[in-house]
Amino acid sequence: MYGDLANKLILEAKRTQQLNHKQKHAQLPMYHEDLIRNIIKEVTQLKKNTDFLKDQQEQLQNQEGNDNGLDENVLKCQYFVTLLCMERNKRCLLAYQKLRCDMLDSLAWSNSNSSIMELESNDLSHQEQEYLKEYGELITDLKSGEWADIDLSGSLTPPSDVFIDVRVLKDAGEIQTEYGVFNLIKDSQFFVRQSDVERLIQQGYLQKI
Amino acid sequence: MDIDIEDILAELDRDTTAVDESLPSHDEIPSESNTTSHTLLNNSLETGLNNDKNGKRITTTVATDNNLRIVSPELSFKQLMTCWRNERCAPELLPFPHELMKRMMSRIQEQMEYIENISMGFLENDHTHYSDHSPQDRNKLATDDDPVATRMNSNHDSKLPLLCMEAEIERVKFVIRSFIRCRLSKIDKFSLYLRQLKEDDTNIISLDEILSREELEYHERHFLISLKLLNDSVLKYMPTELQAINDTEGSVNMIEEPDWNKFVFIHVVGPPDGNLEKDSSLTTNEFNKYCYSVTIPELKEDVELTINSIYVMRYEVIRDLLKAGKVELI
Amino acid sequence: MSLPKHLQETFSPEEIQFIVENEPIKIFPRITTRQRINHRDHNNNNKGHNDTSRRNWKLITTKDFPLNNMVAMQTTTVTLWIALLLKQQSKCSIIAPDWLTIRSLDQSIQYEKKHEDRFSKLPWNWLVLAQLLFGKAPDDFHDPVHELRNRIQDLREIRQLKVLKGLKYLNESHLQLDNLSVLEINELRPFIIDIMDKLRELHSAAHGESNANEADDEEDFNFS
């Protein structure tokens, strides 16, 4: 039935959304390219149908003298339903893409470069990869402008202690801070300023104790 | 004891944009003076009020000229906190507090320079003290109650203000970051709606006022790349009549508007200048309490919002009071 | 999205704590920062290369006068987060607020039990402040902390029960919730708002004034 494929797509989107509502880290499933291509095909088919129905309607109207009110109503109804099907397919496609778009945005803000790299090769469509790149650039520009001092992509959890104890989870080499050089070797512990190591915590090199 | 004159004057030292040569220097102001208000400039229209801990009202006079605005740091921060909380709770994007943000950003920058100068001074003096410590070092420190305290003591408490100032600046940055990130998410959510506002000349408030310059640019650029994505993956495969992104003709309106009637938690604070008598929208109810009378149009129901009370109310109903600073979202 | 979903609905508990930390509190400093020489002479010298200027507190969110004029064992008022920082460095003791004593809490509990339809007049930050002080300044209380903690817990439970009972009065119009604290509001927010919004939609639909809020599955996906 027309609309079935789109329905499948939207259920998929809903599932993704619910999954992400529970987990904090956005996980983007694979782009359903086949399904989308088929829905687009369906729309093209529906478009042909509407053109055909329109022709029929015109022909019917041009036939003089016949009492064809019933046929005309049937045609009108068919035409209208077909239009609605097309419109619905469009909405489903857009909704699916919009949801993925939002998730890509979250990803771009979350700073986890490694997970972005993984995604780019696998689960994103070509257009989505392009989008992610451009949005990343937008964020970079935004961060270096008027609000450069704020570190817009920094932590959204309020600072509790300026200085914290951290444990090194994996070797991260040396870092330079205002308080000297730290050599981050696995399993060692340091007393550092939180803002100096924020990024390293987010990237999983360090853990707050 | 007079704390506030100190404060206002200290502010003069800091705010590079606001130095009036004619003002008396610090030493000429008696520090034990009981003056509670100090007019810095005559053409004042906007007045910020603040309760000090004795319940006394302290007036900080604010000039209207953009370049000569003097608002005490604690009042500015209070305003920032209110803006942040309002923005987080409001269903719509609230107007960007241009002046306040300008003030906050310049204060942050100055403070960062100040902190940097101090810590550089420290580095010169005791560089070795703060270099990294191996786990062995740590064990040594751990025998003391508190590693920070240990180091503080060894440094004759001189680092305490620095520690505090660093903590403070992290706090301010956090609020601004969270505030802007919240705004950006609303800008994204209402992207099309805001574009519609831009094209509509009949609006009382222009988009330039709602958004900051950076936000305007973000809005435009993000819209363009999103549109490109949707075009390339969906819209261009649609029949011509279905290619619009902002379709309002079809069966479902595609432009998402803020939910104007969404319920919000409000705290009724009264007029920002604290002058209950002069607020003409205030009335007194049968219990002789000051309140704002509002109407819920859909239910044709009148509600009295008494000062200092907390309500759950439809946003549209209190929107004007919010913009006038008479209620706060909590 | 630039703001994570869980922060779009309500504040996080950490954010609520952050808000409360900006409130003033009384302390007994254990250090003296007031200087004999007029400290204001140094205010103009902010370059930091001079020894005396380092001892000055220069703050941008709160008054720094009290901090620059602390005298050991003389009560002063500072912002809570600064008090906690000083406390962490053993530079002050925090003076617990009047309501946070066994006697006062017992009175509040009595009040809560007596009045089924209202909340006792605790400060708007009572719950968070109590938890913060129990955790970070337990030695500054005159009363035993575990007993205070029990009473706070009792109060919390009594009030929660009241809130639950009150939920049946949720409607599509409005609600007055005086004396509810910031944390309590924050916890209730998603639930109360969700229900009241739904009631409002139902009411609108039933009265045919607006059909714009049709709620079907796709609504969440509306392109915006």
- SSE class of chain A: mainly alpha
Corresponding CATH architecture of the largest domain in chain B: Up-down Bundle
* CATH top-level class of the largest domain in chain B: Mainly Alpha
| Uncertain residue ranges of chain B | 1-68, 126-156
The major pleated sheet of chain A works out as: 3 strands, antiparallel
> How is the biggest beta sheet of chain B arranged?
3 strands, mixed
Helix/strand order of chain A, N-terminal first: HHHHHEEEEHE
Overall 3D geometry of chain A?
Answer: rod-shaped
Rg of chain B computed from alpha carbons, rounded to a whole number of angstroms: 26 Å
Average pLDDT of chain B: 73
Helix content of chain B: 40-55%
Q: Hey, roughly how much beta strand do the residues of chain A contain?
A: 5-15%
Percent in helix of chain A: 55-70%
CATH topology of the largest domain in chain B, anyone? Methane Monooxygenase Hydroxylase, Chain G, domain 1
How would you characterize this protein structure?
Chain A: It is found in: Nucleus. The complex is a heterotrimer of chains A (about 210), B (about 325) and C (about 220). Chain A is mostly helical and about 210 residues long. Chain A folds into 2 domains: about 140 residues, Methane Monooxygenase Hydroxylase, Chain G, domain 1, CATH 1.20.58; about 45 residues. In chain A, the strands form 2 sheets. In chain A, strands 4-1-5 form a 3-stranded antiparallel beta sheet, covered by helices on one side. Chain A has a two-stranded antiparallel sheet with strand order 2-3. The model of chain A has no long low-confidence stretch (mean pLDDT about 80). Chain B has 10 helices and 9 strands. Chain B has about 325 residues and is α+β, with helices and mostly antiparallel strands. The longest helix of chain B is centred in the middle third of the chain and has 30 residues. Chain B has 4 domains: about 70 residues, no CATH class; about 80 residues, Methane Monooxygenase Hydroxylase, Chain G, domain 1 (Up-down Bundle), CATH 1.20.58.1030; about 55 residues, no CATH class; about 70 residues, no CATH class. In chain B, the strands form 3 sheets. A 3-stranded mixed beta sheet of chain B has the order 1-3-2, covered by helices on one side. Chain C has about 220 residues and is mostly helical. Chain C folds into 2 domains: about 70 residues, Ribosomal Protein L9, domain 1 (3-Layer(aba) Sandwich), CATH 3.40.5; about 110 residues, Methane Monooxygenase Hydroxylase, Chain G, domain 1. Chain C has 9 helices and 4 strands, in the order H-H-E-H-H-E-H-E-H-H-H-E-H. A 3-stranded antiparallel beta sheet of chain C has the order 2-1-3. In chain C, helix 6 runs parallel beside helix 8 and helix 7 packs antiparallel against helix 8. Chain C is globular, with a radius of gyration of 24 Å. The C terminus of chain C is likely disordered. At the A-B interface, helix 2, helix 3, helix 5, strand 3 and strand 4 of A face helix 3, helix 4, helix 6 and helix 9 of B. Strand 8 of chain B pairs antiparallel with strand 4 of chain C.
